[in-house]
Every structure is written in C-alpha cells, then in structure tokens.
Specification:
The chain starts with a strand and ends with a helix. It is built from nine helices and eleven strands. Helices cover 33% and strands 30% of the residues. The structure holds adenosine-5'-triphosphate (ATP) and magnesium ion (MG). The site of adenosine-5'-triphosphate has 17 residues, from α1 and α3.
C-alpha cells in the first residue's frame, strides 16, 4: 500500500477531524453517518479513510493497517500505545474522566472507612491506576457501555466514565465525586510508516499541527 490510510471512528471524532483534514487538503467524498461504506475515498487519489470502532483505532494503526488515526486519550490508555507514535494532541472530543456515584451515596465516607467498592467501567486500566494511587480498595467490573445503569441496577457502587455536560449523570441521578483527568483526542501514527512514508505523513502532520485550536 503506497497511499495513506487514515483510521477514524464515526460520530464526534470523524466530525471534529474534518476541519483538520481540510487543512491538509483532504476531503472525504462520503459521510460515514449516511454511507454504509467502511472505506471512504477522498479528493486525493493517494488518501483513504477507514471507519472503525473508536476503541479499534489504535489497533489498526499499531499493525500498520492504517498509517495514522485519531483516538481519545481514554482509548489510548486502555490500549497501552504499543507501536504508536503520538505526536499531537488535537484538542478535540474533549471531556473528563470521572468517578460517579448515586446521589445518596456518601463516597467520601466509604473511602474514609476503607470500604471495598465495586466499580464498573469500560476503562479498567485507568480505574485501577486511579484507585491504587489513592489507596482505595476496589473490585473492578468490566462493561462495554451504559455505565450509568450499573449503580442503579445494583451492579456497582460507583462508575468511572467520561463526562462532558453532566446531563447523562443527572438524568440517571448520579453525581461526579472525583475528577480523574481531562480527555481529548490525539493523532496516532504507525512508527514504521513514519519512516517509510515520511514525506506524505510530514505534510499531513504539519497541516494538522497548524490547524489545532488552542483553548
Ligand atoms: P460508541 O458510542 O459507538 O459505543 P465510543 O463511545 O467508543 O463508541 P464515541 O462516543 O464516538 O465512541 O467516543 C469517541 C471518543 O470521543 C471517546 O474515546 C472519547 O475520547 C471522546 N468522548 C466520548 N464521550 C464524549 C463526550 N460526551 N464528549 C466529548 N468527547 C467524548
Ligand atoms: Mg460513546
């Protein structure tokens, strides 16, 4: 494959990456929201976009099936980042990784008393590191979605999840009790591709770097 393959997930990452691609002179010819195609061409003969699950972006880039991609810090932490060069924080798809509990639950007291907490999350590695650093004993329960349901259904005492407006927490009578870290998406590049396709990738990286919005 001599061209450039870019791995993106549909939804906010695709939408928020479009202006950065445009700055690099790359315009996808279809919208993954309306097209069922998983490989999308662009105005540039040598550039294509593959549409994958957000959590699969690092894997495609790690193995070189895509030369570059855009992935959230949350996803990159869980993946581990092996084989990936992460040159640029794109400052898009911003939110916060937080601990949340049901409204009536006295989290601070439970922690003070050294209670063993059941914590449900899609982000097991992040959660494990966070509670280990605080010396809180937890049993972690891996989920793949709808974390907000876990405390309501009695599966867990707390969740670790991404929060942007807090609307979903509120709608489910949950409150954020700890802020773990800010999250944004990063450009990830395959390390071998960086050498083999240096010129083409440098052009894209430079254009992205110039188009990143600062806070
Ligand atoms: P799906 O929603 O299809 O199950 P997903 O949650 O992995 O998959 P997205 O919802 O598109 O995929 O999220 C992609 C990335 O966007 C996440 O990895 C995270 O970095 C960021 N993100 C997730 N939720 C929010 C949010 N509410 N606000 C801003 N950024 C978010
Ligand atoms: Mg989502």
């Amino acid at each position: 494959m001599t061209g450039i393959t870019i791995a993106l997930s549909k939804g906010r990452i695709f939408d928020e990456t479009l202006p950065l691609l445009a700055a690099a002179g790359i315009v996808p010819v279809e919208n993954p929201e309306t097209s069922r195609k998983l490989i999308i061409g662009t105005n540039r003969e040598d550039v294509r976009v593959v549409i994958v699950r957000a959590t699969d972006v690092p894997t495609y880039v790690q193995y070189g099936a895509a030369d570059l991609g855009v992935a959230g810090k949350d996803v990159l932490i869980e993946h581990g980042g092996e084989g990936l060069y992460q040159p640029l924080d794109l400052n898009i798809a911003k939110c916060r990784m937080m601990v949340a509990v049901p409204e009536g639950f006295d989290y601070a007291r439970a922690v003070r008393q050294g209670a063993r907490l059941k914590v449900a999350s899609k982000y097991i590695k992040t959660a494990r590191e966070h509670f280990a650093a605080k010396g809180v004993h937890v049993d972690l329960i891996k989920l793949y979605g709808s974390m907000e349901l876990a405390p309501l259904a009695g599966l867990a005492d707390a969740i670790v999840d991404l929060v942007s407006t807090g609307g979903t927490l509120k709608a489910n009578k949950l409150v954020a009790v700890e802020d773990i870290m800010p999250i944004s998406s990063r450009l990830v590049v395959n390390q071998a591709a960086l050498k083999l396709k240096r010129e083409a990738l440098a052009q894209i990286l430079d254009a992205f770097a110039g188009a990143v919005k600062k806070d």
